[in-house]
Amino acid sequence: MLTLTYPPTYKPERLYIYDFVLRSFLGLSYHHQVGLPGEVTISLRGDAEKRRLRLDDTLFSIPQDHWLTSAVTPKQPLETILAHEVDLDFDWINSSLPVLFGSRLSNGEFYQSSEDGIDLGIDVFGSAFFLLTRYEEVISPARDSHDRFPAKASSGVQQGFLDRPIVNETIEFLWACLHKMWPRLERAPRSFSTILGHDVDIPLIAGGATWLEIARGMAGDFLKRRDLSMAAGRLRSLVENRRGNLDADLWNTFGFLLETSERKGLPSTFFFISGHSGGKIDGTYSLEDPWIRSLLQEIGQRGHQIGLHPSYNTFLDQDLLGKEFRRLQETAKSVGLQQAKWGGRQHFLRWRAPTTWQLYENVGLAFDATLTYPDRPGFRSGICDPYPVFNLQTRQPLELIEQPLIVMDEAFLGKGSFSIHSVKDSMVRFKDLCKHVNGVFSLLWHNGWLISKKARTLYLELLEA
User: Fold this and answer.
1) What value does the mean pLDDT of the chain take?
2) Alpha-carbon Rg of the chain, whole angstroms?
3) What's the pLDDT score for residue 413?
4) Could you say which of 3.40.30.10, 3.20.20.370, 3.30.70.260, 3.30.1490.20 is the CATH number of the domain covering 193-203+251-464?
5) Interatomic CA distance for residues 28 and 25, integer angstroms
6) CB neighbours (10 Å) of residue 399?
7) Rounded distance between C-alpha atoms, residue 252 and residue 414, angstroms
8) pLDDT surpasses 70 at 203
9) Where does 140-245 have alpha helices with state H?
10) Which of 58, 165, 215, 305 fits a 20 to 30 Å CA distance from 103?
């Protein structure tokens, strides 16, 4: 068993991140004890040579009156640890690893090995804590027109690491150090997996649409997308809708999604809107619609999951969020569906750290799947694995699990025409990064982004990659 010795400051924060990194992620048994200020060490019971791994402790060494202030940010530009500087068995993504928090050692580098152990100038635990808790979003006033923290204000964009799972990498670097000192030490096995999710914003393009709205969409098909078949499909959808044949709607791609998921052995989660606090921005369908109820029933009967897509104004409103969650549960129950756990993803990705997490916990949701940026794919939390969250304001860990979203269709396809090959290559790059660290690739694809043959081909090729 390992023994972790740490300073007496920030105990709730420390125990949260120590437990996640060592027990949850690496699967290691460890005992923790309070030691001297400024010293974080890991040792192995029974090690006759009494070697120790000595780690930097920059983040949790800052004065209390600087906590949750702009004084706590990674240095710009970030320094890096280079492959040629270490003698570790470590699977580099490239030849360097960014250092969010840390300090160079006496040898001028971030790594030094000696007979009595390893000195590591990287603050592994502090860096992971900063990213997983979305610390910078709590202290930053930056917001976009939808009151969301923008990607451009993040350290990931500003420092150029949004497109890599830096928390996964840094923890794996820690493991390489541990394994070098104690080769017989065993960790929990990890394997790559994929999670598919589908936000049901507009299930039917003709549902609730007027002739004028359909005409405007057709004009866009002609003038912007140069897609005559899509324009014809919109018109046909409206005609069939008026006749009561809703299944013929152009945006009814649910059968395709279900069949594809089942063929690949990848159960999907479909996130439904159950309230309309923002008006038409939350769509026009109701859970009481017979067609929607039938869709919910089919999804459940085929072994897939239902999730909540909370409406526009729920991200800071517990009462509203709770009402919408109960409405979805009641509707699901009325069509014979039972689920052991429920998760949600915020509509328009409207989310606030740590408030929205706490609201999810309070109303009984088990996981959140919101964390990505609307205009940029990547690793907003620095990780591609689901992880337990921590409320920075209450200083308490939550039972809620964050399931980070890595790639969303609209981030690539919402800017007009696209090349299947270039978009697929970009998406596959993120998938390969998740695979490199034996993590989880989470993909969001809306039913409305499958109405063209081109988009369906892209989706299929991505899952095949």
Assistant:
1) 93
2) 24
3) 86
4) 3.20.20.370
5) 8
6) 9
7) 19
8) yes
9) 155-158, 166-181, 211-223, 228-242
10) 165
Yes or no: say if 305 and 249 are a contact pair by the CB < 8 Å rule. no
Integer Cα distance of 170 and 172 in angstroms:
5
pLDDT (tens digit per residue) in 86-123: 999 999 999 999 999 999 999 999 999 999 999 999 99
Give me the percent of the chain exceeding a pLDDT of 70.
Answer: 93
The answer to whether 441 touches 431, Cβ cutoff 8 Å, is yes
For the four alpha carbons of 101, 105, 107 and 108, in that order, the dihedral sign comes to positive
| pLDDT for position 222 | 61
Reduce the DSSP state of residue 73 to 3 states and report it.
Answer: coil
Q: What is the tens place of the pLDDT at every residue in 227-266?
A: 666 667 676 766 767 777 888 888 899 999 999 999 999 9
Instruction: Work out the burial of residue 70: count CB atoms within 10 Å of its CB; fewer than 13 is exposed, 13-18 middle, 19 or more buried.
Output: exposed
Q: What's the start-to-end Cα distance of the chain, in Å?
A: 40
8-state DSSP, 90: -
Domain boundaries in the chain? Answer: 2-181, 193-203+251-464, 212-245
How far apart are alpha carbons 395 and 389 in whole angstroms? Answer: 11
Distance CA 387, CA 369 (A): 11
77: Cα within 13 Å, side-chain hemisphere: 5
Whether residue 346 contacts residue 314, with contact meaning beta carbons closer than 8 Å, is answered with yes
Question: Tens digit of pLDDT for each residue in 52-68?
Answer: 999 999 999 999 999 99
Q: What is the pLDDT of residues 308-351, one digit of tens each?
A: 999 999 999 999 999 999 999 999 999 999 999 999 999 999 99
Residue 179 burial (CB count, 10 A): 16
Instruction: Give this prediction's pTM.
Output: 0.95
**Strand pairing category for 367-368 and 343-344:** parallel
For residue 85, how far is the Cα from the chain centroid? Answer: 32
Taking a C-beta distance cutoff of 8 angstroms, is the pair 455, 461 a contact? Answer: no
Q: Is 10 left (phi over 0), alpha (psi -120 to 50) or beta?
A: left
Contacts 24+ apart (CB under 8 A), 157-163: 157/376, 158/76, 159/74, 159/76, 159/77, 159/78, 159/98, 160/78, 160/98, 161/78, 161/98, 161/382, 162/376, 162/378, 162/379, 162/380, 163/377, 163/378, 163/379, 163/429, 163/430, 163/433
